[in-house]
Amino acid sequence: MRRRTKLAAAVFPGAAAQIRSAPTLSHKRTAEPMKSMNTRPLTTHPSGELPRREFLQFLGAGALGIALAMRNAAAADAGAPAASPAVPRSGPKQLRGLFPIGQTPFTEDDKINLEALAAEVAFCNRGGVHGFVWPQIASGWSVLSEAERMAGAEAILAAGKGGSTALVIGVQDKAADMAAVARYAQHAAQHGADAIVSLPPANVTDEKVLLDYYQQVGRLTDLPLFVQSQGKMSIDLIVEIFNTVPTVRQVKDEAGDPLARIAELRRRTNNQLTVFSGNGVRTMINEMELGFLGHCPTTGLSDVYAAAFDLWHANRHQEAFDMFGRICAFESMGTTTMSGVLIARGVFPANVKSRRAPPTPGVDVTPTPGSGGGRGGMGGAQHPVPHLDDQQVRVALDHYLKPYLRA
Predict the structure, then answer these.
(1) What is the pLDDT of residue 116?
(2) Going edge to edge, which strands form the sheet with 248-253?
(3) How many H helices and E strands in the chain?
(4) Helix (H, G, I), strand (E, B), or coil: what is residue 387?
(5) Which residues touch 313 (CB under 8 Å, ≥6 apart)?
(6) pLDDT given for residue 251 in this prediction
(7) Domain residue ranges in the chain
């Protein structure tokens, strides 16, 4: 009881007084396009198409094994369960698993902090996180200039060289200017991205226009293209994109009810489309049961999410359930700043700032300790929750999650 009182006082001042299997990346398609969509001729754009770079081999497996063995031995000495090992990966980087949406750090004078952004990638590599995506909604992509996006992509791709984390660069443009999209896509290819991703053009609901857009993006490079669905993008549209764009192998599905859509998406693509979840990854166990093969939280606890994924796909389902439960319990403790967990874990400096992005329709970005963004809590509970400062987050991490932090 004395230890719990001390912890409560540290995390909540004043509380002591109260005492309380992945698809193969093939570029061949045989499925027929859906008959209800007659596409108009597509506008061509100079592609400057580049040969796809050879993917980097996984390095440092031996060093990782030694580090994990030392951590597990220390955990055993302390009587705590050992952290789960990262699943060894070799050869081309697999585009499945935990792909957090990177947060964008800024300096006090509102310049993008490229050193901290690179540190986010290094953190993912240390923690056995399968991938990293930037810049998308949780990154505040819409408040970044083109120069900032180019510089950020270069910092990320340079930091990730030689690592096992697959790097996915966002290429959408605020005005849906295809010339700008082409610059982002070809820049990503030139600097060694493993894949690109695009949100749909804003305020466009005509599915023929959306199909045309993704077909154009798919011709810009030979990198794998992730589709990020939004709004009312139909299953018919996603399947038609899959059938007509050879580089589309992945969708981050945030349209409608993704849990209700995945069975049909899998069936109609013969299980060749890797479906990723978003929306804060609050239903990860349900998602894995249904066949989602990718998940996109934010970065702060991405190594713990990755541990849950690795355990599940090693058929250690109860341990995966327990690992994800730790994330849910931690997030229930309160809200924090967008960068709070990354500051507490030493990835971002304490003086890092964020830019406020305009709201995205249908997306709640109330930050919780583990998410740093996405939906604000399990089940949308309405009761008030405390706000944790960086020191309180650090204390909670140390007391509750330290044995499970792979990074």
Answers:
(1) 98
(2) 97-98, 294-295, 274-277, 248-253, 225-229, 195-198, 166-170, 131-134
(3) 13, 8
(4) strand
(5) 87, 288
(6) 98
(7) 92-404
**Domain covering 92-404 in this structure, CATH number:** 3.20.20.70
Cβ-based burial of 40 (10 A; exposed 0-12, middle 13-18, buried ≥19): exposed
Backbone angles phi, psi at 329, to 5 degrees: -65, -40
In this prediction, residue 357 carries a pLDDT of: 78
**Mean pLDDT, 10 residues at a time, the chain of 407 residues:** 42 37 36 37 38 36 38 42 43 89 97 98 98 97 98 98 97 97 98 98 97 98 98 98 98 97 98 96 98 97 98 98 98 92 97 84 49 38 80 96 96
- State the pLDDT at residue 334: 94
CB crowding 270-294: b at 16 or more within 10 Å, else e: eeebbbbbbbbbbbbbebbebebbb
Q: How far is CA 281 from CA 9, 44, 120, 185, 194, in A?
A: 30, 37, 19, 27, 23
Neighbours of 13 (CB within 10 A): 11
Pairing of strands 195-198, 294-295: unpaired
- Tell me which DSSP letter residue 52 carries: P
Q: Is 253 exposed, middle or buried (0-12, 13-18, 19+ CB in 10 A)?
A: buried
